[in-house]
Amino acid sequence: MEKKSWIDIAVGASISIALFPVSGHSFIGGIITGYLQNKDSIRSSVYGLLVGTLTLVLWLIYRIAIETIQGTFQGWWHIAYPVVLNSGAILFFACIGGIIGQYLRQEK
């Protein structure tokens, strides 16, 4: 992967994290990453999956930091459970967003 691809993935993940309280945040991040890419649909879906993965990793780091700062650490499963529960939907919608973003770029 080239450097531009990683920057586009970071932009999509940043937008996904910034819009985290909004429903469809990973979908929007995937659309933006897919739109920024000038590749085929398969590669845009992979980039969308990477956006979703990076979003999940950053969310997990955030939850660990909050639990540590608040002193309410009850175990790893207590921290990871919401991330694991929502990971399928986040990855799926980020992947679909990547495909749609690439489609929108082609139709432009």
Class computed from helices, strands and strand pairing: mainly alpha
The oligomeric state is single chain
The helical percent reads: over 70%
Got a strand count? 0
Distance between the termini: 25 Å
- The low-confidence runs, each spanning 5 or more residues with pLDDT under 50, are none
For the report, how would you describe the main beta sheet?
Answer: none
What would the average pLDDT be, to the nearest integer?
A: 88
Q: SSE order in H/E notation?
A: HHHH
| Rg, Cα atoms, Å | 15 Å
Percentage of residues in strands:
under 5%
Shape: elongated
Summed up, the helix count is: 4
Describe the structure using short key phrases.
108 residues; 83% helix; mainly alpha; 4 helices
Description:
The chain is mainly alpha-helical and 108 residues long. It has a domain of 73 residues. It is 83% helix and 0% strand. Helix 1 packs antiparallel against helix 2, helix 2 packs across helix 3 and helix 3 packs antiparallel against helix 4. It starts with a helix and ends with a helix. The mean pLDDT is 88.
